[in-house]
Amino acid sequence: MTATASHAFDTDTASTRLGDHEYGLEVSDRWKSFGGHANGGYLIAACLQALRRELPQPDLLSASAHYLRPGSVGPARIRTEIARIGRRTGAGQAVLTRDDREIIRVLATFTDFSAARGRTLVRNEPPSLPAPDRCVDPMAALGATPGGATIGEQVEFRVPELPGFWRGEPGGTTTVDCWARFTDDRPADPIALALLVDAAAPVIFDLGVPGSSTIELTVHIRRRPAPGWLRCRIATNYVIDGFHEEDFEIWDSTGSLVAQSRQLALIP
Amino acid sequence: MTATASHAFDTDTASTRLGDHEYGLEVSDRWKSFGGHANGGYLIAACLQALRRELPQPDLLSASAHYLRPGSVGPARIRTEIARIGRRTGAGQAVLTRDDREIIRVLATFTDFSAARGRTLVRNEPPSLPAPDRCVDPMAALGATPGGATIGEQVEFRVPELPGFWRGEPGGTTTVDCWARFTDDRPADPIALALLVDAAAPVIFDLGVPGSSTIELTVHIRRRPAPGWLRCRIATNYVIDGFHEEDFEIWDSTGSLVAQSRQLALIP
Predict the structure, then answer these.
(1) Residue A94 near residue A79, CB atoms below 8 Å
(2) What is the band of A60 on the pLDDT scale with cuts at 50, 70, 90?
(3) CB under 8 Å to A99, separation ≥6 — which residues?
(4) Which of A21, A36, B25, B205 registers the highest number of CB atoms within 10 A of its CB?
(5) Chain B: closest CA distance from residue A241 (Å)
(6) pLDDT at A187
(7) Chain A residues lying within 8 Å of B240, measured CB to CB
(8) CA dihedral of B148, B152, B154, B157, whole degrees rounded to 10
(9) Which of these ranges, A22-31, A41-50, B2-11, has the smallest mean pLDDT?
(10) 3-class DSSP state for residue B31?
(11) SS3 label, residue A142
C-alpha cells in the first residue's frame, strides 16, 4: 500500500501553489490537539510538503520549528524560501500565516536517503512492547475523543497499560513506550514522521498539569520507515520552572530507529 | 566577575549595526574547530548576539541552526528578522552570510528567566566527576592544539580520563562526562551556553572517524547558569548510514541543568 490523495494526511497537508514560493493551505479540523488548536506536528508537515516541491532531494532529514501563535482551522498561507541547494542536501524555510499573523516558522534540510552509504552503530534497543493486539487503545478505553483532540481519530496508539491521567488519576510517570500508526493505514514516510512525533498526548499530563504549549520542536529523520506499526519511546526528564522537554523516538517494524525528536514546551 | 568586552567571547561575537536588521561581523580566527573552519557554536552565538538587540526579552530560550556551508575567517554579514514579539517570549531569525553565500540560518526564541515561575521536577542527576584539578586537561596532555582548532585556547575541558583518540588509539566510547569553562574565566550566560554545547571534540572521534560536519543544532537553555566550572554530559547513541546525533547537557555549579542540545551531523 502506498500513500495516496485519499489518505487524510495527504489530503490535509496538500497546499495549492498561489505564486512563487507562495502556497494556500486549508488548515483542517481533523488534526486538532487537546485544547482544540491545530496540532503542531500537522502544521510542520504541511509546511514541509510545500517546501519539498522546491528541493531536488526527496527525503526530509531535519526540521526545526518555532511556534509563534496557536494555529486555528481555516485558510492559511505558506511562504517558502530556499537557503541552499547542494549535491547531498538542500535546505530552506517555510512560514505559515493566518490573517498575516505568523503561526509557525520552520527550517528544514532534505537529503536522499537512498544515497546514504556511511557507517551504522546503534547503542540502544527499540522499545520492548507486547504485540499491538495485546495492548490497550487509549481512545477505545476512553470511549470518546477528549478535549476536541480530533487527531485521535487520525493517529492511533497502543499502550501496554493506560497511563493514570486517562482515568483521571495522574500517576507521575513521564516515560511511555507505545505503538503508533495512521488509523487509515497510510504508511509513514519522513514528513509523516514529523507529524507523528507530536501526535501523542504530552507524557507530562500524567503529572496532572493542565496543558503544554510547544515553543520549539526539532525532528531528525534517520531512515525511511518500513510499513507497519511503529514503536515509540516518549520521555520527559526535566521540568524546570514550568518549561519541559519531550523526547520522542520512533522505530520501524524492521527494528531501525527512523525518527528522533525533542520539543521544548511550557506548562501554562 | 561579569562579562565584559575584554573577554574573547564578547569581543568576537560583537557585530556592528550597518542598517535596519543588518550587521557586520568579523569572523575571528580564535574559534576554529578541528579542520580549521569557524566553530558552529561560535557562529550561532554571533547570530544570537545580533538578534538579541532587537528583542525585549533578555534570555535565549531556544535556538535552532541549520548549517549550509563551512564558515571561514573574515568579514561576514548577519541579517535579522523578527517573527513575533509577545509578552512572555520573542522570536526571530538570523542569517549569516560570507560573500553573499549563506553559512548558517538560525531561528531563536528568547524569554525572561527571572519571570519563570512554574513547576520543577528533575528526573536525572548531574554528571558525577572528580574535582577539576583531579581531572586531565586534554590540551595540556596533547601539548599542542590539534588540527587548527584554536577554540581549544578559548574553552577548556577537564576529563576524568583521556579518551583514546587523543592518544591516537580510538577506544569506541561515545559518551563523555567532563568539566568546561572559558579559559579567560568569562562567566557563562544563555548565549555563551549555545557556543559551549558545540565546543568539545565530537565524541564519535573515539570511533576513529575522520571528522563530523554539523547539519543542524538545536539548543534549549533551561536556566541562567551560575558562575564556575560547568559539568557536561556528551553522548552519541545512533550512527546510522553515516549520520549521527550528539546530545550535550550542561549543568552549573549549583547542580541545575542549564542547557540541553542535540545536533545532527554527517561523517564525511
Answers:
(1) yes
(2) very high
(3) none
(4) B25
(5) 4
(6) 97
(7) 120, 122, 222-223, 256-257
(8) 170
(9) B2-11
(10) helix
(11) helix
From chain B, the residues in CB contact with A93 under 8 A are 93, 105
Planar angle of CA B230, B233, B236, nearest 5 degrees: 150
Q: Does B93 touch chain A (CB under 8 A)?
A: yes
CB-CB contact of A134 with A179 (8 Å): no
pLDDT in tens, B76-129: 999 999 999 999 999 999 999 999 999 999 999 999 999 999 999 999 999 999
Across the A:B interface, residue pairs with CB atoms under 8 Å apart total 177
| Nearest CA among B89, B25, B94, B23 for reference residue B59 | B89
Q: Quick one: cell of B111?
A: 524569554
Q: Residue A4: pLDDT band by 50, 70, 90 thresholds?
A: low
Residues A225/A113, Cβ–Cβ less than 8 Å: no
Task: Name the burial class of residue A169, with classes exposed (0-12), middle (13-18) and buried (19+) by CB atoms within 10 angstroms of its CB.
Answer: exposed
Chain B residue closest in CA terms to A118: B242
Total residue count of chain A as it appears in this document: 268
